[in-house]
Amino acid sequence: MKRKLKSIFVFSLLLLVSHCGYTPLINSEKINFNINSLNFEGDREINNILSKNLNVYKKPGGNENNYNIFITSNYDKTVVNRDSSGDPKNYNISVKTDIKYVLPGGNESSKSFERNISLAAQNKKITEKKLESKYKKNLSNQISQDIIFLLSNN
Asked: Which of 46, 72, 86, 128 could in theory staple to 122 by disulfide, Cβ–Cβ 3.0 to 4.6 A?
């Protein structure tokens, strides 16, 4: 009896999960834009990540929205608080990008994206540097997704 109820429950759960109606926000089949040119200023590491993520949309084609994009990126790491001896305890890592995008008709728009995360100071500085680099990469990937979402909904 228990075994039969368990199998019915598992089957029902699988049926519900597979038919929940989930569709991704950014669907590659529904991309209605093309990037003609990408120009970067600012932090090199952030720009490399953004370039890698946005170059996928740099295809010559018949899409109706062709953008020329100018991106300025900034990275900031500030001390949030210190311990009694004056050593940093926590940092705030901030990645900010200003994007200007121009349609071939000459219409220009701009938007700023900023993402922040807290980083606790580590005893080993090499561990702290690795975490900082990981967080910087994650924040940059999130901003590139924000840019793609912005361009696909214009």
From this structure: 128
Rounded CA separation 56/102 (Å)? 18
CB neighbour class for 46 (10 Å; exposed up to 12, middle 13-18, buried from 19): buried
Alpha-carbon gap, residue 7 to 83, rounded angstroms: 56
Of the candidates 95, 94, 42, the one whose C-alpha atom is nearest the C-alpha of residue 70 is: 42
DSSP 24: -
Digits of tens for pLDDT over the chain (154 positions)? 777 778 887 777 776 666 565 555 555 556 677 888 899 999 999 999 999 999 888 876 666 778 889 999 999 999 999 889 888 899 999 999 999 988 767 788 899 999 999 999 888 989 999 999 999 999 999 999 999 888 888 7
Q: How many CB atoms lie within 10 A of CB 154?
A: 14
Query: Residue 73 and residue 60: Cα distance in Å, rounded?
Result: 26
State how far the Cα of 109 lies from the Cα of 23, in Å rounded to an integer: 29
Location of structure tokens 């997704």: 145
Q: Measured between alpha carbons, how far is 56 from 40 in angstroms, rounded to an integer?
A: 16
In whole angstroms, give the CA distance from residue 11 to residue 92. 46
